[in-house]
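Quick one before lunch.
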Amino acid sequence: MADRLTIARPFDAHLHLRDGAMLRAVLPETTRHFARALIMPNLVRPVVALDDARAYHARILKALPAGAVFQPLMTLYLTETTDPADVATAHASGLVHAVKLYPAGATTNSASGVRDFDKVRPVLERMADIGMPLCVHGEVTDPDIDIFDREAVFIERVLDPIRKNTPGLRVVLEHVTTSDGVDYVRDGGPLLAASITVHHLIINRNHILAGGIKPHYYCLPVAKRESHRQALLAAATSGNTGFFLGTDSAPHTDALKENACGCAGCFTATNTMSCLAGIFEAADALDHLQAFTSENAAGFYRLPPDPATITLCKGEPVTYPDKIQTDDGPVSIFQPGFPLHWKVTP
Ligand code: NCD
Ligand code: ZN
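Model of the N-carbamoyl-L-aspartate complex:
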């Protein structure tokens, strides 16, 4: 087994960078290894218009560590009042690469999201015309639906009807967590893809709930039972171009995670590549790591492959700090629960 692997510099197709002090603290954790990332728009005041995206893009560039080469790809937050013409202008600007659909109430800062999916039909039709991808948080919010079923029900009740009503719409099912989602995307043709996180490849719901509650493993969509994790693993390591890395690295301070009503989100930016190399090696699929981390998302978002590379080396267990420090407080780094032997060489 090779102990050195060089791959195209990765693309994180789903990243939360936040703003202000948190942005400054977490950005270097991503730029150290990643060439580009699709930046989620769920700020406290969401990124709803091209001007918001421009301003946020500028703040990200300003926060870049010296010498970092990194392309933030911006997204707009879909609301029931989003104007189709504004979305088309944003896409044509080259700055905005996708629109993100949050069902209202589904996750962090989703209160301005969509309640009535019919209201956004004109936007989706325009996006289908211009080939602009829709990134979907795929969970229903109906309190009658069990939280572990919310993705499968969303696919059946919301996503599939949207796709049938909007021919040509390009869709990414974000942070897919179920075998239902994997099957749906695998059979969905070239207009449909899914991002997969690192943590959903590693943890199942036992990791969150058995032997004491582990708030740092709580994220949305919540991790499901082991058979679903196995389906995600098979999809990620298969080389299938419809599946790619979107870390969903979502920093919250420890005070907000270790809380009677803890926030959802796992902070994985720091050790994503070490975790993935270990997972792909264990699946005997290191030859598909580059497709998953660097090529497939670039293909779907119609970006040229990044010419730069990173090299991973295998050796003694790699250690990472438990936390990063931010001016808002410490943020714990995701603990995979197994030793990491692959390290990105500087
Ligand atoms: C994300 C966040 O904190 O912004 N949280 C999460 O659990 N994944 C939002 C999201 O992507 O759902
Ligand atoms: Zn997310």
